[in-house]
Design a protein that fits this description.
The chain is built from ten helices and twelve strands. 34% of the residues lie in helices and 25% in strands. The strands form two sheets. A nine-stranded mixed beta sheet has the order 1-12-2-3-7-11-10-9-8, sandwiched between helices. A three-stranded mixed beta sheet has the order 5-4-6.
Amino acid sequence: MITLSHMMKSGEGETEMNGKWLFLDSGQQSPAYNMALDEYLLEYREHGEPRPILRFYGWDPPGLSIGYFQKTKGRIDMDGVRRHGFRLVRRPTGGLAVLHDDELTYSVILPESYPGIPGSVVGAYRVLSAGLLEGFRALNLKADLAIPEQNREASHSAVCFEEASWYELVVEGRKAAGSAQTRQKGMILQHGSIPLSVNLDKLFDCFVYKNEQVKERAKRAFVDKAVSLEMLSGKRPPLSEVKRAFYRGFERGLGITLEQGELTAKEEQKVRELARTKYESDEWNFSR
């Protein structure tokens, strides 16, 4: 087991650096903790250029994450969020709202200078999506990379899974994984969700609609555009099986070897402090 503070050894060669990534499975955590840990890993610099990291995590309680630039007023129904016991958190990445409930969430953190990573966001999506693509294949599902129509009208929905963006994963023509990305100080953070199942009533209770008729139409349209693993296979797969599939998928798709990592007690304390002071605060979450 490698601690984060020792993930870069003195004299480690470039070839080893390029092939071996750190893997963290942080389990079920609060929405604030999950975003705080992603930010902490993005900014980690103790031993020079850090090794790339793949992280798996879940949400307890479930969370509604909203994009960095997304507005809440008139868009997010906080009564609905609270009624279902969810917590709202603003991501450090862009995009639209995602309800994180019964899912596997992943994040990838790596330097912009990592070999083979294009300079554009769309290009990086294409490369990193290879890991997701192989993960779906490991579950015996035929996934493809989305290529949106150039002239498609912009969606006015607040819901992330209503449309697939460039190089996101689609299965049977419907979006099966949603991702978002940010770049800061020479580093890339890409994180996203792979729903095992979706409760449409709970999901759409989190958003503001003019009336119930509009809300019901949005639900019906959603199932034509988005899909969960349960909807694809007819039954909900065990989370452990999904983790194994995407662990193998990232190794195969990106040509890497994953090594188990963990946080030290000091690092854990820093993450929890960041969660408390930033990601649990109304000042951050309702800043727009």
